[in-house]
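Sample entry (294 residues):
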Amino acid sequence: MKNFFIAGLAIWLLAYPVWAQETRPSFSITPAKAEFTVLPGETTIGRLEITNNLGRTIRFSIGLEDVTAGDGVTEPIKLLGDDLGLYSLKPYVVPSAYSLTIPNGDTQTLNFELKVPVSAPAGTRHGAITVTAAAAGTGGARANSQLASLIFLRIPGETAALGQVTGFGLLNGPIVLGDEPQFFATFANDGNVYLNPYGLIILEPMMALPGREIVVSPNFVLPGGQRIIEAGERTLNWRLAGWYRAELKLNRGYNNLLDDRQVTVLIIPWWLAILAVIFGLALIWWLVLKLIKR
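Predicted structure, serialized as tokens:
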């Protein structure tokens, strides 16, 4: 019996390999996304921090691009390059510089102005400040590295906010074996302003151990776009076991409107799965021994 347990545990652990962490030269920008509300006729200042860990002094180029909703539900946004978006941010943003030279290990701050004309219509504008690290000048052709910080600008006034949940389910299927349950909700934005839907998933026991609440963090959805919002931890399940009713309560991000969806799920923790395997092997062994004795 002990050997069966060790074998079962070894098989389970092999399914979850541990990868060695490797540190590579890189650079970073903070924040990855910023939201601003600016009244017509007013100006505000934003800041972007750039940290160089590429191993040498780098000249970074600063650019502006509009963004739009992606082509599919798994692609929330798409950078438009030189093209103007339907809700263009470019006319409203003025960076303090279009290039920065940063020594290795240093961090510098890029300021930028958000200017909203008096005549600007209400709504939201969506774009990104791009930061591009120049490639090394020797060693052949090398691609530039680029990061983007999303900038969302809201101009107060009368707008059309309209969105809804179009789907709800489990990423790991209706029977979850060994892992924590991972959920998804598909949200469509049919209005003309970006939305930040958020909420809770309530696991209510039907024939199960005590339930749980899972937070659905805010996720931006651009106008005309559709996005898959994921919730749940990618870890082994120790506690949840049995049949559950999973209820999604998602705030649409405006007027305190809630969407409610439900699914049922059977959750089997990893230790129960191992015990079932051990019991099954022991039963087979017992039957084999019984047949041999005959």
